[in-house]
Here is the input.
Amino acid sequence: MKNIAILGSTGSIGIQTLDVIRQFQNRFRAVALSTNTKIDILEKEIEEFRVRKVAVANEEKYEELVERARKGKGKALKECEILKGAKGLEEIAVCEEADTIVTSFVGAMGIVPTLKAIEAGKNIALANKETLVSAGEVVMSAVEKNGVNLMPIDSEHSAIFQCIHGEKKKNISKIIITASGGAFRDYTREQLKNVKAGEALKHPTWNMGDKITIDSATLMNKGLEVIEAHWLYSVPYERIDTIMHPQSIVHSLVEFVDGSVIAQLGLPDMRLPIQYALSYPERLENNELKRLDLKEKNNLTFRALDTELFPCLKYAYEAGKKGGTLPSAMNAANEVAVNAFLKDKIGFYEVAKTIRKVMDKHRNKTKPSISQILDADKEARKEAEKIINGL
Here is the structure.
């Protein structure tokens, strides 16, 4: 039995993680959960899974949930310890009962709790891209120092892990990360000028949270995955490629020195990589997951990504290669810009323009400490807000 704590249990990945736990109650048990603001969903999760400890990052929502516990009829909620804010998230991350921490927060708020969990000797199932994008060197060093396992939940990184499993690192020639291309993959420059967030959120193949769906449309999501792959698999950026694959069936590929290419295929369902991350090194049969039938999915296509039309991908390569605090600044600027786009405060092209301006202004620090990384994040957010307010 693996005891699981979930940082971000009310988001897309968190909800699907609980679905996997629900299917394998003899294998996995949820022991602690957290949310930022979605206390309605969290309350239902508490009642179903009978967890004894939760955290609410937003302090107003924390007070509201505490009041519900005081007045409500739900026995599980009344008996549950409710923690508050960033410190509460950190307590969930180091929860004594938990063996594995699923970090499924969106954004840089996942960095510190993930590090705390690693330092506490917890195994990590990682869905928070920003942790490795902003603090990859610090995080991977902590993983090695504390002897914990870090398993990727992203479908692309799960695919890469499966492709290289049992292979010698020296035999890896190239990692090829596939991209759906997002909602605007077939749009022209002229069409992109007037697109709105509602259009970007209509992802053609995946059902994901708002932020990651916008990142998919700008190709920043792929850029973040390139940086993650660099840290997860110790492969230089020159040997990490990306390619568009609209059907989202081939989740990534690895080319070896002899010319062989191994790919991992599956239907676009995040429960599969989540389940693999939790069950590894075992594979569990899950009849709830639909199987891939290549007689149905018999038209798999690939084409180059247009980094002139969608420049966020090349910005991520640039930030990753330069390293230091620049990836943190780039990521922070992206979070602020995406949030502004979701609120229709800026247009689609202004997302990339904001990131570019923040990167150009950033004073990079090499070999940064975690405090310097977090400071870079904070400063970049302020700069991005200033740029957006001036547009």
